[in-house]
Amino acid sequence: MPAPEELPKGRAVVVGPPQRPKWVTFQCPSGCGTPLLLSLNPERRPRWSIDRDWLGRPSIHPSVRRMDGCRCHFWMRGGRVEWCKDSGGIFPEN
Questions:
Q1: 13-28: per-residue pLDDT in tens?
Q2: What is d(CA 49, CA 58) in angstroms, rounded to the nearest whole number?
Q3: What confidence tens digit (pLDDT) does each residue in 31-54 have?
Q4: Alpha carbon distance 18, 37 (integer Å)
Q5: pLDDT greater at residue 8 or residue 35
Q6: Is 47 within a domain?
Q7: Number of structural domains found in the chain
Q8: Is 90 part of a structural domain of the chain?
């Protein structure tokens, strides 16, 4: 797994074998720079799933909601961040 300072800005990194990925990690898109680590393990709670379109752009389900720090709430669809109205502040566009 990449160290937080090694995460490429604006890119999600899937960790684990393609047939059974374990995590997806990326920098918080709010601009705060916090590395996010989401479990893809179907046996864990909470858990997320990731799909890629034909261009390789990720969609993550369900939404991601940070309850600490910047308190943002967003969807990642087709490699773009879609902010939810209940996010804790004004965040940058993609």
A1: 899 998 899 999 999 9
A2: 10
A3: 888 999 999 999 999 999 999 999
A4: 17
A5: 35
A6: yes
A7: 1
A8: no
Q: Establish if 93 belongs to a structural domain.
A: no
Q: Letter for the amino acid at 37?
A: L
Angstrom distance (rounded) from CA 54 to CA 66 = 29
pTM for this predicted structure: 0.84
Confidence tier at 90 by pLDDT (50, 70, 90): low
DSSP readout, the chain? ---GGGSPTT--EEES-TTS--EEEEE-TTTT--EEEEE--TTSSS--EEEE-TT--EEEEEEEE-SSTT--EEEEETTEEEE-TT-SS-----
pLDDT in tens, 64-85: 999 888 889 999 999 999 999 8
Domain coverage including residue 52: 4-83
- For residue 14, being part of any structural domain is answered with yes
